[in-house]
Design a protein that fits this description.
The protein contains 22 helices and 17 strands. The chain is of the alpha+beta class. It has a 6-stranded antiparallel beta sheet with strand order 2-3-1-9-8-10, with helices on one face. Helix 9 packs across helix 17, helix 11 packs antiparallel against helix 14 and helix 12 packs antiparallel against helix 13.
Length: 577
């Protein structure tokens, strides 16, 4: 795992100091080495921060050059099938100077151009510069596990793994986007391809960008999440469950490729337990977080039991409100606002892994989006079934029930259920596209705050990416909603959270449930096999204890409200003194 950045300038001089400072800004992403390239004419420069995971030898430091000195590559991420790809290239007569995945990607690109992306299985953000043709190729992995920001204005182009890196390029304006602020308040994240700054964008997952020197960049989609497979027709449920289990095991095994020790997070829930069950490493180090003052210690207890069952090392820690101080110290590395309370324990868990000598951690992220694990997927499914009912009916139902519903106190469990599962559902059913319904249901629903902050056209709130993916449909199938969720909330919020928390501690996070082959297979299954993780539960029966495979989904609930309340009270007392 690393950090990358680059500048292509036609009107300004690129200076070594700029590139060096961009690299220093991303130091936590790659503390093991910094490499910089600046062209003789000072129009082009690249910087790479390295976290050494594969081929620890300095020969694999980057930027890395092709054997003829024409092409340069910088890569952030890991290519899990690089050994197979290398073997194919060696059969064609190619020889390698390193044992890294980076050199494999470079040679594959030289041979096949952008088509090389179709062969890669991994997480990555990469850039390849052709010094002869003066062309730049920038790409982001299929599901957006690794971030990549870019900006272009008047012939000047720059990209980076972190927004903060742009601080050191004087001609890049970093003006807060009022629309992005509104979107954050509505969604709790800034939807791609926007960023919190005007004119700075996120390269979409499954897309690449090509740039000829002095011209505008062109963005192209190279992979569609719904491409799927068409060879599963006629297979029985037993056969599909067995195939899913094999795909998951293959994904976990491929994610273990590393020249350093690999660990894993273990909550005792279905997702992380499934991951560790397929790891063959003796005495695998696993990490579990608990919370002080909570009576529910189920995660810690089950993690201990599972560790004993699979002969794992389970390292546990409990955290209290002092974790908020740790979070505050990491805020400067967040780039843009992200409302996700679980970021706090995640930071602690990655810190715990680092303190125990682990540079690579497997996590269970992505399973809920891929397999319909969240409760609200049921509501979305329900809304699709009632799409035939005229919208005025829902408007009238909401108006007639509102006086009665208003009698339920908001702060009670029944009041929250009223707002989320009844009133908001009725409001969603009154909207004219399923994209709008989905957006409202998963939003923070801060309409009033948004309107006060925005004016004119900026008051229009919407996730254009979700609109594009859904179109005008009012009743899309179940897998379409999952695919949309994976390309919006997963990429925008959950993967961004994991990336920031892991990189803040210089630890690489890997997500086997988002293995490209596993995703394509799973989204090709009949809808009912994915709902509530049905196929995962069946696949893990006999491998995991029954109490885990049959347990209901439990959220990662942390006592944030009580922490913040005590923090505020403590601050007020301190002020009074």
């Amino acid at each position: 795992m690393c950090g990358i950045a680059g500048i292509i300038a036609t009107r300004h001089e690129v200076k070594m100091e700029m590139l060096t400072c961009m690299g220093v800004t991303m130091q936590q992403r790659g503390p093991d080495d910094q490499g910089v390239y600046l062209s003789e004419d000072r129009t082009t420069g690249f910087v790479h921060r390295r976290l050494s995971i594969i081929d620890l030898d300095p020969r694999s430091n980057q930027p890395m050059w092709s054997e003829d000195g024409r092409f340069l590559i910088i890569l952030n991420g890991e290519i899990y099938n690089y050994r197979t790809l290398r073997g194919d290239l060696e059969k064609e007569g190619l020889r390698f100077r390193t044992t890294s995945d980076t050199e494999v990607v470079l040679n594959l690109f030289i041979q096949t151009g952008p088509d090389c992306l179709k062969k890669l299985n991994g997480m990555f953000a990469l850039a390849i510069w052709d010094t002869v043709a003066r062309t730049l190729f920038v790409a982001r992995d299929h599901l957006g596990i690794k971030p990549l920001f870019y900006t272009e204005c008047g012939g000047e182009f720059a990209f980076a793994s972190d927004l903060k890196a742009f601080e050191h390029v004087p001609w890049i304006s970093r003006v807060i986007s009022s629309r992005a602020v509104s979107q954050f308040l509505y969604f709790n994240y800034v939807p791609q391809p926007s960023s919190i700054f005007e004119g700075i964008f996120k390269l979409l997952p499954g897309h690449y960008l090509s740039l000829e020197f002095g011209k505008k960049p062109v963005v192209t989609q190279y992979w569609k999440i719904m491409s799927g497979r068409n060879d599963l027709a006629g297979a029985s449920e037993v056969e599909l469950v067995a195939l899913f289990r094999q795909h998951l095991e293959n994904a976990v095994q491929s994610h273990l490729v590393s020249d350093v020790e690999v660990g894993a997070f273990l909550s005792g829930g279905l997702d992380s337990s499934s991951i560790v069950s397929f790891v063959r490493t003796p005495r695998l180090k696993t990490f579990t977080i608990g919370f002080e003052g909570q009576h529910n210690t189920l995660d810690l207890t089950r993690a201990r039991q599972l560790a004993a069952h699979f002969n794992l090392v389970n390292i546990q820690t409990t955290i209290g409100e002092e974790a908020l101080d740790l979070f505050q110290s990491y805020l400067c590395r967040m780039d843009e606002p992200l409302s996700e309370a679980s970021l706090v324990p995640l930071l602690v868990n990655f810190k715990l892994a680092k303190e125990n000598g682990i540079k690579v951690v497997l996590t269970g992220d992505g399973a809920d989006e891929l397999l319909g694990g969240y409760d609200y997927f049921f509501i979305l499914r329900l809304m699709r079934r009632f799409a035939f009912v005229p919208r005025p009916f829902w408007k009238a139902t909401l108006a007639s029930t509102k006086p009665l519903l208003s009698l339920i106190p908001f702060h009670t469990k029944l009041g929250k259920a009223r707002d989320l599962y009844f009133e908001r559902t009725l409001r969603c059913l009154n909207l004219d596209t399923f994209s709008k319904q989905h957006q409202l249901f998963v939003s923070a629903d801060n309409d009033d705050a948004v309107q006060h902050l925005s004016v004119g056209a900026e008051a229009i709130i919407g996730d254009s990416r979700m609109d594009e993916l859904y179109g005008d449909s009012l009743a899309p199938d179940d897998r379409t909603s999952l695919a949309v969720e994976m390309q919006t909330a997963l990429a925008n919020k959950h993967l961004a959270k994991v990336d920031k928390a892991s990189m803040a501690n210089s630890v690489e996070a890997r997500v086997p449930f988002l293995d490209r082959s596993l995703v394509e297979f799973t989204l090709s299954l009949p809808d009912q096999m994915r709902q509530k993780k049905s196929i995962l539960r069946k696949a893990m029966t006999g491998i995991l204890p029954q109490i885990i495979t049959q347990d209901r989904k439990r959220g990662f609930n942390m006592p944030m409200q009580s922490w913040v309340s005590r923090f505020i009270v403590g601050s007020e007392r301190g002020t009074a003194m």
